[in-house]
Design a protein that fits this description.
This protein is an all-beta fold. The chain has no helices and 16 strands. The strands form four sheets. The protein has a five-stranded antiparallel β-sheet, with no helix packed on it. A five-stranded antiparallel β-sheet has the order 12-16-15-13-14, with no helix packed on it. A four-stranded antiparallel β-sheet has the order 8-2-9-11, with no helix packed on it.
Length: 207
């Protein structure tokens, strides 16, 4: 389940999460927190209410580096203090000082956009129908489905597919066709040959 970061006007195109905003990285607490606390405040942060819900608070450097917590919700603010509530009833496992560096990672379903020909993030799923910007909808992440093949792509049954690097954003192509570095397999061609520039049956493999 995702919210669109742009108009997703065509079904069967694969998508990815939009680029992370600069303010989401290398943040520090506005005040120290104790072990067991379930909230933490961050100064000078512009957020909308619960923008980071279902995302992650990662401790990316200093002190408790490597830990992460799921986010239950956050307050709204414009260049003001934002309070983040973690989804952990026992709270933080260790105290954090104002030197702790953190990052806020949006949910994988936040502001998804059609996968561009130059990757900016990981694939998160394929559109099942079209829907408008800022509306919610379902993405398919695995199993039998349909994908649009890049024009000029001849794909035999059972061949591996990846994001196109040369055609229309959101389409798939046969891996190694472009001669560039592949992004990796995200689908397999079905039990029939694919037709270029048309939608074909594929098997999505856990985007």
């Amino acid at each position: 389940y995702a919210i669109a970061g742009e108009a997703l006007t065509v079904a069967n195109l694969h998508t990815h999460i939009s680029a992370t905003d600069a303010h989401d990285l290398d943040l520090v607490p506005a005040a120290a927190v104790s072990a067991g606390d379930t909230t933490i405040t961050i100064a000078s942060l512009t957020t909308t209410l619960n923008e980071c819900a279902d995302g992650m608070l990662i401790l990316n450097d200093v002190e408790e580096e490597g830990h992460y917590y799921l986010i239950k919700g956050n307050t709204a603010g414009t260049s003001a203090t934002c309070t983040v509530t973690i989804d952990e009833e026992d709270g933080f496992v260790a105290a954090l000082t104002t030197s702790q560096q953190m990052g806020l990672v949006h949910s994988m379903g936040f502001d998804v956009v059609v996968y561009p020909t130059t990757s900016l993030g990981p694939p998160v799923g394929a559109t099942c129908v079209d829907w408008a910007d800022n509306q919610h909808g379902w993405l398919q992440t695995r199993g039998p489905g349909v994908a649009t093949l890049h024009e000029g792509t001849a794909v035999l049954a059972g061949n591996p597919l990846g994001p196109t690097t040369q055609g229309t954003a959101g389409e798939l192509e046969l891996l190694d066709q472009s001669g560039t570095i592949d992004y990796g397999i995200i689908a397999w061609m079905g039990d029939a040959d694919g037709v270029e520039d048309e939608s074909s049956a594929v098997y999505w493999v856990g985007i």
